[in-house]
Specification:
With about 160 residues, the protein is mainly alpha-helical. The protein has helices spanning about 5-20, 25-35, 35-50, 50-70, 80-100, 105-115, 120-130, 145-160.
Length: about 160
């Protein structure tokens, strides 16, 4: 898939941020029809790995990622459960590798990962969004951010590779 531009990423993020609460169910339904395994994956890992606020945030960011691909103007095939499993396994192995890196090597490795990533703008959105200060009444634990990143990167990897 061609790289998605920063303009598409930013426009999609703004669209989603401005969306009314009434429009969310329709968009959720559309995502479930286009990418049922992605939707199920986000809901399942959210329930399994995170508290309710974190699960809701993970699903929202996952919807933004899906919408970015949806609005990219490129054909995106339906992702399968097997593809998600393989991508998640690969990302977990990458995380294990990164945990073993010395701090200087870690920074260089992460820069190389993001710099050479086909959907760097989409991944950059995820990193930026995860690093934002949560709403005061929202229980987002700092230790959950890494897991959320891995799951969202898994979704990006699969959407990017689908044809």
């Amino acid at each position: 898939m061609n790289t998605i531009s920063a303009d598409v990423v930013e426009a999609t993020w703004k669209e989603m941020a401005a969306m009314s609460a009434a429009a969310v169910p329709r968009l959720t339904s559309r995502m479930a029809k286009q990418q049922p395994f992605v939707q199920a994956y986000l809901l399942a890992v959210g329930e399994r790995d995170f508290n309710p606020d974190e699960a809701q945030l993970l699903h929202y960011f996952g919807m933004v990622v899906w919408r970015i691909f949806d609005l990219s103007g490129q054909a995106v095939a339906q992702v399968t459960g097997d593809e998600l499993d393989r991508a998640e396994e690969s990302n977990l192995k990458m995380l294990e590798y990164l945990e073993g890196e010395a701090s200087a090597d870690f920074a260089n490795t992460v820069r190389g990962l993001v710099g050479g990533y086909n959907q760097a703008e989409v991944l950059g959105y995820v990193v930026e969004a995860l690093m934002e200060e949560p709403e005061p009444d929202c229980d987002i634990r700092p230790e959950s951010l890494g897991g959320m990143f891995i799951h969202l990167k898994t979704v990006i990897d699969c959407l990017d590779q689908s044809r």
